[in-house]
Specification:
Acetylcholine Binding Protein, Chain: A, about 450 residues, 7 helices, Methane Monooxygenase Hydroxylase, Chain G, domain 1, disulfide bond, 5-stranded antiparallel sheet, Neurotrans-gated_channel_TM, alpha+beta, 4-stranded antiparallel sheet, about 35% helix
């Protein structure tokens, strides 16, 4: 069977029997001679041809001997290799069944001159040689009488219908099962970590693999309007992989939301981070479905200091100016910072436990404005002990304000990390959700296609 060109090649033994009144004899007159065999070219033979022949050379049956009996019955058995046109319906490929017809009739005689009858209801398949790809289910025969528009006489013919069923094992193991296995790889792209950089590559690779299988099927199928079943499965799988790749790109954009992104909406926190996360079994590290919800701790209130950044606010007798500069520290600036932080080491031995180190290139300094009392002290109006007390009090406030600034920076950093982490968790939950959805889709599509095998 050449499915692409829709041609069936068959090796047949054709038996034709007719009665020739001119070839009768009395066997008693010829010493009991009942049967003779002579070359077929010596006698008249009916011009029976295959109507739906697709042979380029129009070769007929082999020119063998004919067997003639004394009553004029002539039998002509001849082997033939026929090529007939067969309309192939590939809608259910590779689980399809085909019907190919062999229509035999006279080329020049009408029904009034030559009548054609089928000797049996079906062809004799006793000596059939099994085909590795097709299983012959039967070959019934039927006589037809057709009235053509050109002629008023009837034209009989005998049509044999060859019922074939494809042996699908070859295509199942070489085309279908690899496709199913590749299809199950597509949802696993959602399980890959977003930072791996291979999520989109996996989807594209699976798409290319299915395209190769699709081309293999297209090479053996006729270019008809009927799409084979396995082709529909490939198209559905490729559509699913295209959708999964597009969703992967969308989810990766969510995962890589930077610190400037908006906070996660409230509905997303409720629906995605709570309900969908539990449905998809997505938990934080060290957390499971039985873990109690931790109590939220409010950050300590920020003291209302009276110093502002890059500005001066009157605070009574002690006025302060807070300065922040960015750049590389010089040796002189480092000494100024050490002098600023050293006076009161007793107030919190480690004031920056929650902020491990100074940010590179950023340092703070405080300039205390000179109050009226200090000016009087400089002029000799205040004692030395009172002057030292006020200097110590000013340094305490400087140190506390620096610590508060560091704490605020740390809170901002933690808020940014929390916002980024929430978006990453949203992306992770969506990944798991779509992974299960696509796994279910692949499973049911594979179940439908495999159901045809059973």
């Amino acid at each position: 069977m050449d499915e692409r060109n829709q041609i069936l090649t068959a090796y047949l033994w054709i038996r034709q029997v007719w009665v020739d009144a001119h070839l009768k004899w009395n066997k008693d007159d010829y010493d009991g001679l009942d049967t003779i065999r002579i070359p077929g070219s010596y006698v008249w033979r009916p011009d029976i041809v295959l109507y739906n022949s697709a042979d380029d050379h129009f070769t007929g049956p082999m020119d063998t001997n004919v067997v003639i009996r004394h009553n004029g019955e002539t039998t002509w058995d001849s082997p033939a290799i026929t090529k007939s046109s067969c309309k192939v319906d590939v809608s259910f490929f590779p689980f399809d069944a085909q019907q190919c017809r062999f229509t035999y009739g006279s080329w020049t005689y009408n029904g009034n001159q030559l009548d054609i009858l089928n000797a049996q209801d079906s062809a004799d398949l006793a000596d059939l040689v099994e085909n590795v790809e097709w299983e012959v289910m039967g070959m019934p025969a039927k006589k037809n009488v057709i009235q053509y528009g050109c002629c008023a006489d009837p034209y009989p013919d005998v049509t044999y219908t060859l019922n074939l069923k494809r042996r699908a094992s070859f295509y199942v193991f070489n085309l279908l099962i690899p496709c199913v296995m590749i299809s199950f790889l597509a949802p696993l792209g959602f399980y890959l970590p977003a930072d791996s950089g291979e999520k989109v590559s996996l989807g594209v690779t699976v798409m290319l693999a299915l395209t190769v299988f699709q081309l293999l099927v297209a090479e053996i199928m006729p270019p008809s309007e009927n799409v084979p079943l396995i082709g529909k499965y490939y198209i559905a799988t490729m559509t699913m992989i295209t959708a999964s790749t597009a969703l992967t790109i969308f989810i990766m954009n969510i995962h890589h939301c930077g610190p400037d992104a908006k906070p996660v909406p409230k509905w997303a926190k409720t629906f995605i981070l709570q309900h969908m996360a539990r449905m998809c079994f997505v938990y934080e590290v060290g957390e499971n479905c039985m873990s109690p919800q931790p109590e939220k701790q409010e950050p300590p209130p920020v003291r209302n200091n009276k110093c502002t950044m890059n500005g001066q606010v009157g605070a009574g007798r002690e006025d302060c100016v807070f300065k922040m500069e960015r750049g590389q520290e010089t040796q002189e600036e480092k000494e100024d910072k050490d002098q600023m932080m050293s006076p009161l080491g007793s107030i919190g031995r480690n004031p920056t436990n929650n902020y491990s180190s100074w940010k590179s290139g950023v340092y703070m300094s405080m300039d205390c404005g000179e109050s009226e009392a200090q000016r009087r002290c400089r002029r000799g109006g205040v004692s030395d002990s009172e002057k030292k007390e006020r200097e110590v009090s000013c340094h305490e406030r400087q140190l506390l304000r620096n610590i508060e600034y560091i704490a605020n920076c740390y809170r901002d950093q933690r808020a940014t990390q929390k916002r980024t982490g929430e978006w990453k968790k949203v992306a992770k939950v969506l990944d798991r959700f779509f992974m299960w959805i696509f796994f279910i889709m692949v499973f049911f599509m594979s179940l439908l296609i495999m159901g045809k095998v059973i």
